[in-house]
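Bench notes, bay 3.
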Amino acid sequence: MILLNRIYASGGNEVLIQTLDINVGDDIYRLTNGWDDIRAKLEDGSEVVFTASGCDIALPARNADGTQDLKFALGNIDGVVSQAIRKSLDNLQNATLTYRCYLNTDLSAPAKPPFTLDIKSGYWTATEVQITAGYMNILDTAWPRHRYTLPEYPGLRYMS
């Protein structure tokens, strides 16, 4: 973590490698930004290959507005991932995204803890796919979750 703090503060010879795990149903797509595929270990110790792709990742802002979305764009040249995400969004299937950050000098584990987000929306053109993923939106969530309403509890009508 000290090395990661130094990189954020002043740079160095190391390079941050951003990766995405896109889970759509039973399919998993592992992508990294760049020209070369990388072989890295996940937090559970399993070794996987992240496929090089033309992707751009905008990390969630660290603020208190209640919506922290990760946005990413993929080159839609072969259309494989975009078709899977399109099916997921059209059918409202469960699709998640896991973001991991590695250092090029140490691919034995992520440089910081990964985080998983739900894919919420997206659009695609002939050349690119733009996807938004985020945590649960706390501001638009009712509390308490269980509501006492008249259809479920008709006796509420007679309470004063």
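Next record in the batch:
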Amino acid sequence: MNKKMLLSIVSICALLSSGCVGGKPAQPCEVVIGSHAAVTPVSRMKLKWWGPRHQAVLDRVAQGKVDLLMIGDSITHGWEGSGKEVWSQYYAPRNAANLGFSGDRTEHVLWRLENGEIDGIHPKLAVLMIGTNNSNGDEYTAEQIADGIKAIVCSLRTKLPETKVLVLAIFPRGDETRKTNKTSNATYNAQWAKNDKASELAAQVADQKTVFFLDINRVFLNEQGELPRGIMPDLLHPQAKGYALWAEAMEPTIAKLMGETK
């Protein structure tokens, strides 16, 4: 992807994140649950680790005092690994709970939200970044991934009506060809483009009152518009430097939405 194309994409995303999209925001609850795989809640209890992690989240929310939720897949789960120190600095003091599960797709997050993971709490903010696992292969279209994100937003708004929701654009990623070459960076590819389209469609639910959209993807890229292995070694998951960039890029928005700044 050349620099001109990158700037064009960034400009579009900036408009989306600032609420400059024309027309009325889409309604997340218009998505019909069960209409396709991305919006049909499914558990992964057959995995030995998944059930215990789900129970650990239930135990955490039962303790109360949850002001910030981070919801997603392995990229969010990684706040407990490569991102641990950054989490301690930015989010532990805010009574944050990590609802990231490796390998999860939109349908798995839906199941978790409908089965206790946000019951009995009143967070100030929920940050959502999900969908990249849905984009593997041809099983899901960008439209269906966007539907999955919208359905999750609906669940959050229904069960947590006082909580603001921040939807993040799905992060850039490498395709299978680039991932097998251990030295190359990721250039713009079909899967990355699918995720961009899904993010653009999901952004339509942002009403700038209770639901917000933020695209920070440009902070991960080099001047050539590539995703460097120094940020995401496998061209999917951030290393410590990537988590630091993520936190720094979100910080002004999180502080504002949590009522810490004007």
